[in-house]
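User: Sequence recovery, please. Input:
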């Protein structure tokens, strides 16, 4: 039986690299308009999970999407502006075959001037680049967006731009977000659901219900500062 409100249902998921198990017997579901944050220590299998969900890795178990279109934000290396191809923004956006008017609309939504379309990647400021990338991810109107630590290595200002823009889109349109983040502040501020992963599922639920100091200690070992934003 499928849950009408679920956008993703994962059941008994196992993923291994060369026979070495990385994810074992993972089951969870994500509802429409959830912001699910995948938490876990280094090597816990978070990126592996996101890749399996996008059918980029072989797996056992079932992954059922009830999504119209799944979008993703490119890897951190791209977001950190390393090894970028010599393209103008116009050329980059054209890869998505946007309909008439879509580029203008998305640029206005991310707060960028159309004159930037003729610029190359290297000619944008950091903040403009972050906005441009969010616009690219959302240009073809996905109803699900997958992001793997989108702000790692990005300065605090850029981080703020990415999350506040994403949150703005999430508020204004039908969007479900699956996000890997190490940042507990992001979890407290934005997550509607959290899954704690350390090869196996260690918690799943609303952050305020499942992220107890005990759970965080079990997930990360000692030394995690327990800090909760009060303003939600
Ligand atoms: N292509 C690969 N081939 C073999 N092993 C891999 C491969 N990719 C990842 N692994 C291993 O799988 C495990 C999980 O890796 P994964 O990248 O999913 O972890 P993660 O939770 O995203 O970690 P981090 O927080 O450090 O980014 C690690 O032990 C890693 O070494």
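Assistant: Recovered sequence (232 residues):
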């Amino acid at each position: 039986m499928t849950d009408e409100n679920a956008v993703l249902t994962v059941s008994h998921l196992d993923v291994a690299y060369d026979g070495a198990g990385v994810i074992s017997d993972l089951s969870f579901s994500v509802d429409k308009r959830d912001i699910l944050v995948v938490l876990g220590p280094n090597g816990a299998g978070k990126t592996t999970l996101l890749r399996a969900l996008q059918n980029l890795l072989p797996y056992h178990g079932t992954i059922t999407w009830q999504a119209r279109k799944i979008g993703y934000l490119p890897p951190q290396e791209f977001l950190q502006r390393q090894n970028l191809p010599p393209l103008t923004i116009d050329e980059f956006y054209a890869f998505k075959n946007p309909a008439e008017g879509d580029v203008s609309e998305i640029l206005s939504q991310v707060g960028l001037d159309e004159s930037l379309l003729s610029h190359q990647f290297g000619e944008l400021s950091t903040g403009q680049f972050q906005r441009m990338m969010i616009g690219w991810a959302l240009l073809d109107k996905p109803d699900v967006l997958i992001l793997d630590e989108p702000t790692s290595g990005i300065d605090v200002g850029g981080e703020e731009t990415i999350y506040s823009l994403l949150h703005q889109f999430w508020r204004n349109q039908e969007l479900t977000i699956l996000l890997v983040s190490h940042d507990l502040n992001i979890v407290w501020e934005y997550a509607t659901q959290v899954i704690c992963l350390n090869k196996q599922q260690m918690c799943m639920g609303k952050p305020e219900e499942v992220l107890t100091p005990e759970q965080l200690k079990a997930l990360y070992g000692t030394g995690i500062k327990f800090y909760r934003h009060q303003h939600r």
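The mean pLDDT is 87.
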